[in-house]
Amino acid sequence: MISQWQLRAAFAARLSDMYGREVPAYTTLVDVSRRVNEDVLRARGADAERLGSVGRVTAERHGAIRVGTPGELGQVARIFGALGMCPVGFYDLREAAASAVPVVSTAFRPVEGEELARNPFRVFTSLLTPADPRFFDADLRARLETFLAGRELFPPELLALADRAAAGRELPDDDAERFLHLAVAAFELSTEPVDKAWYATLERVSAVAADIGGVRSTHINHLTPRVLDIDELYRRMADRGIEMIDTIQGPPDWQGPDLLLRQTSFRALAEPRAMRTPDGTVTSGALRVRFGEVEARGIAVTRNGRALYDRLLDLVDQQAARHPGLDRAACARTVWAAHVPATERELAAQGLAYFTYQVASDRPRDGRRPPAGIAELLRQGWVRAEPLVYEDFLPRSAAGIFQSNLSGEGSRNDEQEGAAYDSGWLSGALGRDVLDPYALYEQQQNRSIAQVARELGLDGELG
Ligand code: OOG
Ligand code: NI
């Protein structure tokens, strides 16, 4: 029998092999990431593993996929459900991007600490929004919805196996093999010719819309390794002559603890794709949609921590608007140094980031009663705090990554009222609840605090 987490790990590994064959530059990215990680481990020792063991970090990937209809999204939820992955978070990239990115997204990932430690594979999953009149007029919307209704992304056999895996939380070896084969195949780039005129019609609205709704299949857009020093990785990729996007998205490189998520990518590559012209002839063409992203993960922040992050982003934006030509990264570093606590302890004390707590093995043992209050326990050495890794995404970074890799701006008509898609709507489309990432981190933190309270005889006193 193959358990869900083994299925998840095997799927991530096979997807990586498949994608490496399709996009050799991805393999370069993985190699460079591995070398950077080895160097960081050598230089920083155990400290480098504070946000995940080297085993976890080396195997860690996130994928990105894009689908067209609520029905397709529901099927994706069944396939990832088989792998023990749940939809977490709602990201509205229509609002986060300046150019036309007509999608809303969620991320499928494991949610329990133990499962994340076994294999944290996650997939950023975007759904096209044809009902949004800022992008699609009534005629194009109708054509698009008809086109999407006529395609099948996932064979029934794959979905049936997925349901069995989800129900039993495991699959017999032969079924597991078949499931993995079909699941990986569903995300391969299709060789079927692309209808050139239809693709171009959608591309005028948005390159993302064309990538999703211009073809009869789906594919993995990118697979992102995790790196322990993303600035160093950026330099090494650029030194190899690989064209990177202009920036590293997310928090700046600064003196304090790593927070949230920093991401960058190499630019979307021209990939050969067969094209069918209106007179029926098939020619060879190329499309530029898939890119190579890489990321560094930091500590998960609380709602207050996130509000601070968003406020600082705004501050940097304001500075940049006032001073054209400003070095954004340097400005962000200054802003962060002025506003963000520079130690984990202070982040914990101010309730800005999530930690799990354990009773310290070298705690005071002189019969004193421990103080009530986790901050005081930490300060007096009764407990230790371990940071929780940020397992999610950032809408503004995601929009930045989308945008940096689009060939054109597309078009959007902001005089139209946008169609309302929210987390509740997405839950309906998925047929399961979109989970709140803050609630998940908080649960992990609270469980550890309850355990500390029991061990120190402070039941009911640590809130
Ligand atoms: C997703 C873009 C966003 C991330 O990691 O934030 C993203 C896509 O291109 O489909 O990958
Ligand atoms: Ni990504």
Please describe what this structure looks like.
- By secondary structure, this protein is of the alpha+beta class.
- The chain folds into two domains: 2-299 and 391-432, Uncharacterised protein PF07063, DUF1338 (2,3-Dihydroxybiphenyl 1,2-Dioxygenase, domain 1), CATH 3.10.180.80; 304-385 and 448-456, no CATH class.
- The chain is built from 19 helices and twelve strands.
- The protein has helices spanning 4-22, 24-44, 54-59, 70-82, 93-96, 113-118, 138-149, 156-168, 173-186, 196-205, 207-213, 230-239, 303-322, 328-339, 344-349, 374-379, 395-404, 423-430, 437-456; strands at 2-3, 61-67, 86-92, 103-109, 122-128, 170-171, 194-195, 222-225, 261-276, 282-297, 355-359, 383-387.
- The strands form four sheets. Strands 3-4-5-2-8 form a five-stranded mixed sheet.
- β9 and β10 (282-297) form a beta hairpin.
- α4 packs across α18 (423-430) and α13 crosses α14 (328-339).
- The longest helix has 21 residues, at 24-44.
- The protein is globular, with a radius of gyration of 23 Å.
- The two termini are 42 Å apart.
- 2-oxoadipic acid binds at residues 64, 66, 124, 126, 221, 263, 293, 393, 397-398, 401-402.
Summarize the structure.
It is built from 19 helices and twelve strands. It is α+β, with helices and mostly antiparallel strands.
Structural key phrases:
463 residues, alpha+beta, 2,3-Dihydroxybiphenyl 1,2-Dioxygenase, domain 1, 2 domains, 5-stranded mixed sheet, 3-stranded mixed sheet, 19 helices, globular, binds 2-oxoadipic acid, binds nickel (II) ion
